[in-house]
Amino acid sequence: MLVCIGEEIEMVRRKNVRNRETDYSRNIRIAAIMALVLVTAGFLFVRMPEARPYEPRTSSETITIPLPDKLLETKEPPKPRVRPKLPIADPKGKETDPGVGKHEFNELTRSPSDLPSLEPVPFWKVEVKPAAVYLETQRYPDMARMAGIEGTVVVKVLVDTTGAVA
């Protein structure tokens, strides 16, 4: 500390300079002791309530309720399910079910050979890659952008032999 007396400046040392590291540990110890004393005093000076046995407010009386003359009718338990029997092969080899056997379906109007056959398309290399004929710039919806909704769109397109989208 600097002290100014007239025109002379003197350096005076303070005798009560404290070290923060030692003060911190001392303050923690004092706070712990004070907390322990307060908790102990709280337990010593606070009266504990007296424990008394529970006494019901009303007297216990036996109440009899007469049973009805006719008892409730109970439903009969459901009958057990009858499981279907497994078919057993006839030892004589005789067919027992007329529904089993050869059936002829006349519902087909065209045979697969009547369908037009497609010729295989020859493969050739191209130097100019295909490009979109019409490309519109899409604007992301404002509500989806504000809500933070993102996703992936998958588009399936059927292209015929001429290259047109069907």
TrEMBL record:
An example molecular function term from Gene Ontology annotations: energy transducer activity
UniProt cross-references to Pfam families, sorted A to Z: TonB_C
Keywords assigned by UniProt, alphabetized: Membrane, Transmembrane, Transmembrane helix
GO cellular component labels: outer membrane-bounded periplasmic space
Domain of life: Bacteria
Annotated TonB C-terminal domain residues: 125-166
Region (Disordered): 71-112
InterPro entries, A to Z: TonB, TonB_C
SUPFAM superfamilies: TolA/TonB C-terminal domain
Transmembrane segments: 28-46
Annotated Basic and acidic residues bias: 91-107
GO process terms (BP): siderophore transport; transmembrane transport
Name recorded for this polypeptide: TonB C-terminal domain-containing protein
Species this chain originates from: candidate division WOR-3 bacterium JGI_Cruoil_03_51_56
Source taxonomy: Bacteria, Bacteria division WOR-3
